[in-house]
Amino acid sequence: MNCGYEEYGYDIIKRFIKLVERDGTVYFLYDVDSTPQPEGGPSAWGAAALLSAVDEGLAGVNDIGVNYDEIFFAPRFPVTEYTELRYVTGYEVSNTVVEVRYILTDEGMRYDLYSPAKTVKAHILLPKGKSCSKLFLNDKEIVFEKVAVGDSDYIDFDITTPCGKEKLEILF
Question: How many angstroms separate the Cα of 27 from the Cα of each of 30, 48, 112?
């Protein structure tokens, strides 16, 4: 999902979920015809790959520090069929939680990011055919950089003094 093929990445996640629903478990390896290969390796590795694809790829929550004190936030929810969703991740042992709420409308999209981050580097995917006219962080307009990755359009900006509950509003 980092190369401008976000829709293809999401399609892979959906196909993997169908395999898990069909088989009732996760296998490490599947044949080209989706036949599971039980002796292919530890199933936990397959599950870890799926969790990483969702956590870091689709939800775009990347811990680039320690216990999410620095986050690279690159959500790709606009490629899904959802117009509203909530995603929660974190580390159970350290009781560290990151929560993302996403809402998409005809006028724009909104992310609420709850985290312990001291800095957030944001790389936000825009829906196909949309461009950002204004960006608000906690109700204050901020500057952003437009970035193209393959055929996809993103906006980049940094949150250097986060308050723990960031409200991002992107207007089209």
Answer: 7, 11, 34
Q: Which residues contact 41 (CB under 8 A, 6 or more apart)?
A: 28, 29
pTM above 0.85, yes or no: yes
Phi-psi region at 34: left, alpha or beta (left = phi > 0; alpha = psi -120 to 50) = left
**CB atoms closer than 10 angstroms to residue 87:** 17
Q: Specify whether the CB–CB gap between 62 and 117 falls below 8 A.
A: no
φ and ψ of 10, to 5 deg: -65, -35
- 34 closest CA partner among 17, 50, 48: 17
Report the C-alpha gap between 102 and 112 in whole angstroms.
7
Express each pLDDT in 61-70 by its tens digit.
Answer: 999 999 999 9
